[in-house]
TrEMBL record:
Keyword match Signal: yes
Organism classification: Bacteria, Pseudomonadati, Pseudomonadota, Gammaproteobacteria, Lysobacterales
Organism: Tahibacter soli
Position of the signal peptide: 1-29
Keywords, comma-separated and alphabetical: Signal
Name recorded for this polypeptide: Lipoprotein
Amino acid sequence: MRAREDRTAGRHRRSPTAALWRGAALALAAVTLASCGGGNETAAATACVDAVQAKLAGRNYELRAKDLAGSAKTVGDEWHLSSQITFDKSLSSEYKQTVDCKVRLEAGKAPSVIFLQFNWSMDDVKKG
């Protein structure tokens, strides 16, 4: 008899615990989908970061892959990325440049960096 009393508009009442679990599952699904949204941008940014690391081995620098991925734009089958790179961060010799990178993504192949350039300006160099 109790089940009939708990029916509201043809539905059974759900327990508060079940509602919490359902809400948590929906939130987790939303976060997962949001983080997967930038698959190609992330792959291109990772390829650029790896190329910069190979060029600047042993140097003190900071380059944020997240910033690179955020700047990603497609032109044909290429991804163009650009971000600020900081050398000698927190030192008196700190200076900043811009790194430009172009990546080609092809199905079934690893991303390939086809262009990598560092752009600098004398305005960014700290005078000693």
